[in-house]
Structure formats: structure tokens, C-alpha cells
Amino acid sequence: MQALYNLLAEKFRLTFDDTELLETAFTHTSYANEHRLLKISHNERLEFLGDAVLQLVISEYLFALYPSKPEGDLSKMRSMIVREESLAGFSRDCGFDQFIKLGKGEEKSGGRNRDTILGDLFEAFLGALLLDKGVEAVREFIQQVMIPKVEAGQFEQVIDYKTRLQELLQIHGDVLISYEVTSESGPAHAKEFEVQVTVNGKVIGEGRGRSKKAAEQEAAKKAVENKVDPSCI
Amino acid sequence: MQALYNLLAEKFRLTFDDTELLETAFTHTSYANEHRLLKISHNERLEFLGDAVLQLVISEYLFALYPSKPEGDLSKMRSMIVREESLAGFSRDCGFDQFIKLGKGEEKSGGRNRDTILGDLFEAFLGALLLDKGVEAVREFIQQVMIPKVEAGQFEQVIDYKTRLQELLQIHGDVLISYEVTSESGPAHAKEFEVQVTVNGKVIGEGRGRSKKAAEQEAAKKAVENKVDPSCI
């Protein structure tokens, strides 16, 4: 496991006090079952804990990011971020997949690249981190590893730029934001829309897309990226 | 809201820095909808956050209490504790039901005693507490308000005393725990069982119950309460 310790130290500046916890997080049930006599712990219990701390940290993040989104929208976004495939992706991004201990059968059948296994591994790692270093360390890790991807739009559905723009501009009171289709081209099966977003009559972003909705999102995204100063409109 | 502040200060030694958060936690959607023009916040978003922190704290608690229970059992126990009816009960225990602000219709139809509303209120309160004081304060509050009821067996299914006993006794290695029915009496519709639990041949607890299973749980509970020293058996 020395290579894993090195990876964590170099990439995330993390050193576990209880390395046994870390080993458990990287031990799949199939490996523990194959070595039953050694009574090795596997990572399912840590996954239980990690799932809970992940839900909390992502909830806190979304709650703060969207001060006026209703609870139902926040729940939907959270479930996009914490779903198995997403978490498996984060495991791969971190290089965790090379370190999971699998049983022989599981290894042969491609378990090392299976989303369920890698998603669970990511949660188990967070559970171990919680026990070893506390909830603040988990927040920092998630901030470092997950949030940049969320904010880069890896979860396209998560960032609703129209809402985000509205929230940014409303800091100083109500504003009138409107979206207008300025062009519509192409044949029926491959239409392209161009949309302008204006605030109090001033154009602050433009976007294109295959649907009106997509073009609006794109225009709002541009406006958010343009960092319009809400006090100047 | 002064009465609520007093209650929190006296009963739980809690003073909120951000009392607006606390007011939001105690505002039901029906009240906010009735006063739409005032743009009052209601407690659904805080409930979203409170649900997440509650899940985490209860997960941590169960994880530590049962060092060898599989994840599936822990999940089941957690869901017993955090289900709506349980949380509504905690709201009532805390006296929170008298402070929730409801719309007129909701009040008339008995909303003040409705489990959904009171369960959500409890979660919203935990969400407000998390934002105002951090996760450690939530842990302390749950420890003070919820855990004693859990440990007193209010959630009979939560404390599995047979497992608990096994875990206590196995600290120093494997032991042989066995349960034996010593008496079975009464007519078919009202049987009573008596069970003895022995460890390495020594009786350490006795219990009665309407079923063999209930009597075993009772015997295990007695044994746990007897605080058998695992190094002496």
C-alpha cells in the first residue's frame, strides 16, 4: 500500500494516522471473502459512513451555491453528483482504481473498472477520511476533487445557469432578465437557435444551441462568465 | 419567538446567533404562502440540510456502537430512527410543536400535530443548528435528545441486544454464546417463554417474552446490563 500512501501524500497532502482504516477502504468484499480465515475487514461499512458524509457535504455546497432554489431542485442536483457513475469517475480521477484489492474472480471479470465497485470505493475512502481526520478534512477533499468538476459543468444538469444568473443579479434587488431568440436556422432535424439574454434592456450574453432551452442556458452561462457587475445595471 | 429562544436556552443551552435562521426553521410553507407579499422564507431548504446532517450523525453513532454489524443492518436501523414518525416524536418531546408557524387552513385541519409537519420541523431545526453552530453542535444536540431514547429501547428494533452482547464479549476473542428455552407456558394464543443466555457454559442473563425471539432479546439485554466482564469468562 506504500504507493497509495505516496499518492495521497503527494496529490492530496493527506497522511492517515490509522492506515488500517485506509486498507479497509480499499478492500472489496470479494477479497475479504477469498481470505476468510484471515478475517480481513472489507469496505462496506465505511461506504455506509462515506455515503452519509458525502451527502452532507454536497448538500451544504448546493445550499450555499443556490440561495433560493427549492429543496426539490437541490435534491435532484445532489443525486446527479453522488450517483454511482459520477463517483466511479472520481475514483478513477484520483487513481484509486489501481489500489483496490479484489478477489480473483472479480479481477478476472473486470471488476477493477466496474462503476459499482469504484463508486463504493470512493464512498468508503470518504468514510475512512471522516473517521481519521474529521468532517472538515472531508469537506476539503471534496472541494479539491469534486467541486471543480461540478463547476466546470461536468454535470451539465447540475449548474442551472439561468437560475445562477438570476441569483447573481438580484443581490441588489429585482431585475428584469429576458431571453430572446435572435435567429433560428437549419432543417427541422438539426435546428440551431441563437439567444440573447438582456438585463434591464442591456445584452449581457449570447448563446447557441440545438434547442431554445439549451441556447438560453448557454447565453446565461456566458453572462455569468462575463461577470456582469450587478450594481452597474 | 421569545418563548422559543427561552426554551432553547433553558432546555438545551442553545442561543442562536442568526435568529432569522431559527425563525425560518419554524415557518411552514403554508404560512409563507399565506404571507406571500412579505416574502417570508419557509423551512423546506433547511429540512434538506437537516436531513443530511441527521443521517450522518446517526450513521456515525451506529457505526461506532456496532463494530461488526454489516452495512445492511446499519442502514435498516438508521431508517428506523430517522423515519418521519420518530422525528415527529422528537419534535414533540422538545416542545417544538407549539412554535411552528402554520397557515390558517393547515392549523384548522390539525397540522400542528401532523407527523409530516413535525418531522420536517425537526430536520429543519437541525439544518438551522448546523448553519449556526456547526456539525459538532448537531452531534451534541442529537446525543442529548435522541440517543437516550434510542438506548432506552424506544426503537426496540434498533438495539439488537443479541448482537450487542456478542460484540461486547468478543473483545478478547471468540466466545460461545448460547440461548436456551428453560420454560414454555400458557395457552397457544398467549404463550410465555423463558430463556437463559450462557457464555462458555455460564449463565449470564435470563429473559421472558411472548416469543422465543423476544425472550432471547430480553435475556441478552439483561446480560448487557449486568456488565459481564469479558476477560473473566
TrEMBL record, chains A, B:
Provide the residue positions that the database annotates as binding Mg(2+): 47, 120, 123
Please give the GO cellular component terms listed in this UniProt entry: cytoplasm
> Catalytic center at which residues?
51, 123
Q: SUPFAM superfamilies recorded for this chain?
A: dsRNA-binding domain-like (SSF54768), RNase III domain-like (SSF69065)
Residues covered by the RNase III domain: 5-134
Report keywords, A-Z: Cytoplasm, Endonuclease, Hydrolase, Magnesium, Metal-binding, mRNA processing, Nuclease, RNA-binding, rRNA processing, rRNA-binding, tRNA processing
Annotated Gene Ontology MF terms? double-stranded RNA binding; identical protein binding; metal ion binding; ribonuclease III activity; rRNA binding
Q: What protein family is recorded?
A: Belongs to the ribonuclease III family.
**Subunit comment for this entry?**
Homodimer.
**The protein's name in its UniProt record:** Ribonuclease 3
Species in which this protein is naturally found: Streptococcus rubneri
Query: Encoded by which gene?
Result: rnc
